[in-house]
Amino acid sequence: MTAVAGPPVTDLAPDASPPPTVRRPRPRLRAAAGFALGAALLFAVAPLVLSDFRLSLLAKYLCLAMVAVGIGIAWGRGGLLTLGQGVFFGLGGYAMAMHLKLADAGPGQMPDFMQLYGQLDELPLWWRPFASPWFALPATVLLPMAVAFGLGSLVFRRRVRGAYFAILSQALAAAMVILLVGQQGTTGGTNGLTDIQGFFGYDLDDPVNQRTVYFLIAAVLLALLALARQLVQSRYGELLVAVRDCEERVRFLGYDPATVKLVAYVTAAGMAGLAGALFVPAVGIISPALIGIVPSIEFVIGVAVGGRATLLGPVLGAVAVAWARTALSERFPGTWTYLQGGLFVLVVAFLPGGLASLLARRNGLGPLARLGRRRTEVAG
Amino acid sequence: MSLIRGRRLLAGALTLVAAAALAACGSKTTDTDTAAGASADVSGDTVKVGLLNSLSGTMAISEVTVRDAIMLAVEEINAAGGVLGKKIEPIGEDGASDWPTFAEKAEKLISQDRVAAVFGCWTSASRKAVKPVFEKNKALLFYPVQYEGLEQSPYIFYTGATTNQQIVPGLDYLKAQGVKSVYLVGSDYVFPRTANKIIKAYAAANGMTVVGEDYAPLGSTEFGTIVNKVKASNANAVFNTLNGDSNVAFFKEYTSAGLTAATMPVVSVSIAEEEVKGIGTQYLANQLTAWNYYQTTPGAANEKFVAAYKKKYGADKPTSDPMEAAYVSVHLWKAMVEKAGSFDVEKVRSAADGITFEAPEGLVTVDGATQHIAKTARIGKVGADGLITEVWSSGQPIKPDPYLKSYPWASGLS
């Protein structure tokens, strides 16, 4: 999965997931048509056919899809199995929720829960900057990126890889949950930050504003997809794949794999942060239950189900997994967890390349795996 | 060729996203706009109610028993002709021990199923997550679990104890027993932390000292350190707000450290009959609990409740306080609706004050101002048979006071 020191590329284990499809840049027109279709579906079809409730659920799924786009880059392209994206999602979400709670409370006031559980007389120092949208909004993205940069620079330089990196990223998620729960007076503890009323002056209870939040989320997801596509097709994107498949070779070619991986990790963190920030107005809550080990693994499961090495696979997977969760649990409240687990097993057993590979087969394109392997050989 | 492939993948994938979204929608025609405030659908000859409990995840073991008790009440009411001539149609949803899921399912029950009321939630975190949903849609939630107080939503009826009906009587009991020092042990979440704040305020005003305070993460089973600290503190008693599995590990460690109910009694507020079974009676012998109801509570209403429950779910299934409160909540809702003559939420709310019900725990009365109910406090002792028997009771229902306004020592708390 991750870089194996030494052996040539053709020696990749047969069960390794489909290597990347390194493509030459396509004509802009075709990509633009694809995005236009996506935009039409998200902006015209979905709002027309979905009720307000279902649309708000779709908004939630799309936020999870943003995290998935980032994991697609870090794990699918870069081989960094990050089991702690919840941390970055949470940092973005909490930054946004703190600002919205302060805005709800009004200038000079404290959020409701602080008096209840914290018995504080004044706002804690570290909350204060979040009163300003000029600080809070950039922080939703920059804070996760900074944390990812700090952790990434430490571990990638020391050549911490594979399972060790995965464990480390997961430990970070566990630590963050313990920290948040322990500081109940200032973080809301297990309750998290709830009961968010307004979003920059707009009442979130108003269905029209909920719809606007959905449109904002859909637009941001499309923008992130465009960004991911640019990144993947750039020279950097190829270098990232090269690092994943054979880190040592890249090193001997004169590149620093640590920097290459760091960029992917920080990008994924930024995307997760943005997703967390948009999740808050869409769902109205951010809590430790959303950012711990289990949700962090669920993010990765979505990407695996969709197909981690493709551009759209992670988005598809994240939306499909979240939708299946809702649909199954509504229909079979008592047994849905077994059904969901069964679906995961089926996908992993029969579609190791994820849903995206199913799609490719249907279109008569042949398995992506073979396609990619041949290409990689050429590239190697 | 690769160009075409790429484009098709993109287009096809987006189609799939849309298909998924459409499928999620189901039939659009039955969907209603939440904008309208989603009033209950009572046009048919049934009335739908929502059951929102965790059927999966860490809380399932407790919340499933609450669901069972609600179902029992629904069956009883349906057998007696329903509510306002309509049979109750229960719609179950799984909160999955996950707070945002609770919020999602609450929204679904209100806006898609258009239920007349929702019964459920256990943890305070799940209640805090659904509270804005019920307030936004002006829909009703009946919350059946004892909790930390300091809350009063116009769209929630609290049928479990608030702090002045459970924790404060528990402290009064300890004080009467001559306890001068307590050690506080709890799980690390909102209820124990808030309860302990109240206990500390009470202790300060009543000449008790709190000699230690420790929190373990929810689900933690490592209590060696905490029990050693408790033992070294020589406190007169321990006030235990641990929840779930942690109690098993705590009491095993407690017993093996040589501590017993005779040397240092423990008062627990989250251990009911169901949990006693799980922990093992040998570790809990003669320890104290504070609740409003026990399976052994005398009275014809309780005999009927226990017999009906065991008949439906098995003779080995005990009944407990949260189950009883959940069972009572359905009957209270029925009484409110019948007094209001309507399922309309605002009418039901204004009819609520003074509604009484001959509950298994004794007569309960709804307090319209706080939307809590007056309940009798009971201190119990765990017996060798795993049942809890009452050693002290307040004798009469205590009026709910969620913000502890009538207690001068609590003035700084809310």
From TrEMBL, chain A:
Location(s) in or outside the cell: Cell membrane
Name of the protein this chain belongs to: Urea ABC transporter permease subunit UrtC
Transmembrane segments: 31-51, 57-75, 80-100, 134-156, 163-182, 213-232, 262-287, 299-324, 336-360
Region ranges (Disordered): 1-24
Record's keyword annotation contains Transmembrane: yes
Membrane topology qualifier: Multi-pass membrane protein
Gene this protein is translated from: urtC
Primary location group: membrane
Superkingdom: Bacteria
Signal peptide: none
Keywords of the record: Cell membrane, Membrane, Transmembrane, Transmembrane helix
CDD domains (alphabetical): TM_PBP1_LivM_like (cd06581)
Organism from which the protein derives: Micromonospora thermarum
From TrEMBL, chain B:
Spans traversing the lipid bilayer: none
Keyword flag Protein transport: no
InterPro entries associated with the record: ABC_urea-bd_UrtA, Peripla_BP_I
UniProt keyword Signal, yes or no: yes
Keywords annotated in UniProt: Signal
Signal peptide: 1-23
Xref: CDD domains: PBP1_FmdD-like (cd06355)
Source organism superkingdom: Bacteria
Protein name: Urea ABC transporter substrate-binding protein
Native source species: Micromonospora thermarum
Gene: urtA
